[in-house]
Description:
Radius of gyration: 19 Å
Largest sheet: none
Distance between the termini: 26 Å
Shape: globular
Low-confidence stretches: none
Mean pLDDT: 91
Amino acid sequence: MTQSKDISPLAWALLALLGLIWGGSFLSIRIALNEVGFLTSVAHRTGWAMCILWGYVWMRRLPVPLDRRIWVGFIGMGLLNNAIPFSLMAWGQLTIESGLTSILNAATAIFGVLLAAVFFTDERLSARKFMGVVLGFFGVAIAIGLEHLLAFDPRSLAQLAVIGGTLSYAVAGIWARKRLVGLAPEVAAAGMLTCSTLIMLPAAWIIEGPITLALEPITWLAIGYYVVIATAMAYLLYYRILALAGSGNLMLVTLLVSPIAIVLGALFLGETLHPRAYLGFALLALGLVILDGRAVDALRRRK
């Protein structure tokens, strides 16, 4: 993990906006799943967002890479950052609450730090990072429920599917660093979504049947939100924050997403979470704060 930069007021505002956007995505996906299959929901997400981002690339007149190796990189990212995690998490949301899905999704940063220490020599797992990772894993285990880790009922399988999605996100970060360095982020996102769409459209068609556009207005509203705002716009916002605040600070958005998803799930879906989910999130959040390091450094300076 790179050293965190100081965060400007603009970066804080954009971080809060991104947290709000991604927090709302769990609600919108769950609403869409009332009418469309989980694979179809992902095909909508990647397909429409792909069109929007290529339109943006065209308007900006950004160069489109033709190198075969780069497109192999896009295929890997399409699988690891879109097709696999989007599908696993959407399937999980058919059984577990959107708020709990968002809590488990926060483990992405924990897996990311652990895998980076394995694959990159400049991402050493220091004692502080190790403590953050351990706390994060304890938080995830408590949020799931220790008894569910030993069971194989639909709820436990759904939770494990979401964790599988977070692991896929973390592997995607490793893949991107190795295979997609130096590309304009908008082009990288568009290429990734193109490859994931080429995967998801036939998968959804074969497994769930022809994709229909004759959907209820509420379903289209939900799809429109997670396509336009929570995917296409969020990717552009993500890279804007990355340029302003650095990758270390981007991790802070994880702390904002879950509370928003929990509140929206309670207000619009009538969801209630077991108290252990909140305890698990508190431990996971503490782990993320320790991984970030600035709070620890501030405490040391006070001594």
